């Protein structure tokens, strides 16, 4: 007897951005840079920076509340929280556990995932596996960062690139013959490249928090090929062609990387969601923030085919194909 497969169906998305906007002009008063340099090299005009007393768990909680409201659900309906971050509130407990507490949930499980900018894609693929293995019914998947806390604000080569924010998605286990929800994912890492993009502090090595260190050109050089590889892998797994994609929602690190990957994959810009101009690189939050914007303004609609991808420190990289 054929049983109906369990799918990880997207119920909703939500987002939160801190109020404080920092423009390129403001940054150019602090470090030797210009609006023209930043826009030309990255496509970034401004970014949001969290207040001192605003923590990653607060950003995540606000994004989660919006996702719950958009799904018409209550916090008690969630039985798993997976939170991707590289800027946790504490060394432990996990930021996911703090969000669970803020939401007043006392059942199920909550844990963090660390895959830097690829974190949300890794968290989504993990949530999908939990659902398909009947280990969770409704999963809150969050990407949240206060990346401003690990930026050296006197280093012009990194401080212009990043911003803070959070995005959330709720997945529900539904039995369906139809190919809906998360269709397939591809996750990759290569630790050989760790020192091209890393933070020079940590619990075990230095006992400090540290700052982002990056060989920008090297990261750029690797990014386009890695992104294209996983996107093609996911399309092949699902048996889809690039032309069938309705939307491409890439990690928002740099407009030039997004455009180069789109060109290589033959995905037109009009199908590409871009938020890097206003959000900068929010690491694990960038993909759910972009999804939330494109769902909120009516671009991404039910039934459409959406490709998400990300690449970041580790190196880590991954992609997921979702039938919305
Ligand atoms: N303003 C003005 N000049 C600058 C700035 C700045 N903010 N930053 C660097 N420069 C200078 C450099 O000092 C260098 O000067 P020099 O020629 O006198 O030595 C010159 O500009 C060129 O520097 P490059 O680093 O070669 O510039 P490039 O064109 O590669 O652009 C950038 C730099 C934007 C960082 C680019 O390499 C890039 O986007 N790389 C990918 C970075 C990225 O996406 N990182 C995030 C990955 S995701 C994650 O996991 C966090």
Total DSSP E strands: 13
Number of helices: 10
Which CATH architecture of the largest domain is right?
Answer: 3-Layer(aba) Sandwich
Report the principal-axis shape.
globular
- Give me the secondary-structure category: alpha/beta
Mean pLDDT: 97
> Numbering strands along the chain, what is their spatial order in the largest sheet?
1-7-6-4-5
Could you tell me which ligands this complex binds, including any ions or cofactors?
A: acetyl coenzyme *A
Rg for CA atoms:
19 Å
At CATH level 3, the topology of the largest domain is: Peroxisomal Thiolase, Chain A, domain 1
- Main β sheet profile: 5 strands, mixed
State the CATH class of the largest domain.
Answer: Alpha Beta
Residues in helices, as a percent range: 25-40%
Spell the H/E element sequence. Answer: EEHHEHEHEHEHEEEEHEHHHEE
CATH homologous superfamily descriptor of the largest domain: Thiolase/Chalcone synthase
Q: Indicate how many domains the architecture comprises.
A: 2
Q: What is the end-to-end distance? A: 29 Å
Q: Low-confidence parts, pLDDT < 50 over ≥5 residues? A: none
How much of the residues is beta strand, in percent? Answer: 25-35%
């Amino acid at each position: 007897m054929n049983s109906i497969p369990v799918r990880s169906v997207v119920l909703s998305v939500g987002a939160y951005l801190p109020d404080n906007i920092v423009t390129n002009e403001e940054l150019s008063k602090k470090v030797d840079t210009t609006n023209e340099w930043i826009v030309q090299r990255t496509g970034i005009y401004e970014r949001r920076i969290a207040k001192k007393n605003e923590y990653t768990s607060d950003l995540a909680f606000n994004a989660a509340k919006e996702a719950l409201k958009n799904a018409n659900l209550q916090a008690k309906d969630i039985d798993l929280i997976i939170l991707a971050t590289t800027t946790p509130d504490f060394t432990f407990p996990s930021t996911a556990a703090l969000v669970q507490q803020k939401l007043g949930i006392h059942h199920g499980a909550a844990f963090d995932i660390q895959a830097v900018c690829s974190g949300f894609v890794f968290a989504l693929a993990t949530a999908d596996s939990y659902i398909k293995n009947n280990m969770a019914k409704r999963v809150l998947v969050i990407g949240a960062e206060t990346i401003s806390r690990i930026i050296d604000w006197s280093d012009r080569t990194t401080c212009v690139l990043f911003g803070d924010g959070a995005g959330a998605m709720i997945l529900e286990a539904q039995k369906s013959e139809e190919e809906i929800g998360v269709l397939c994912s591809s996750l990759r890492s290569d630790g050989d490249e760790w020192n091209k993009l890393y933070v020079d502090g940590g619990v075990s090595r230095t006992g400090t928090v540290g700052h982002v260190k990056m060989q920008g050109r090297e990261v750029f050089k690797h990014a386009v090929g890695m992104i294209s590889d996983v996107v093609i892998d996911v399309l092949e797994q699902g048996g889809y062609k690039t032309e069938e994609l309705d939307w491409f929602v890439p990690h928002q690190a740099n407009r030039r990387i997004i455009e180069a990957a789109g060109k290589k994959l033959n995905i037109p810009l009009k199908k590409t969601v871009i938020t890097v101009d206003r959000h900068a690189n929010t690491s694990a939050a960038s993909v759910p923030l972009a999804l939330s914007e494109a769902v909120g303004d009516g671009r991404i609609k039910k039934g459409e085919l959406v490709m998400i991808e990300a690449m970041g420190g580790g190196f880590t990289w991954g992609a997921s194909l979702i039938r919305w």
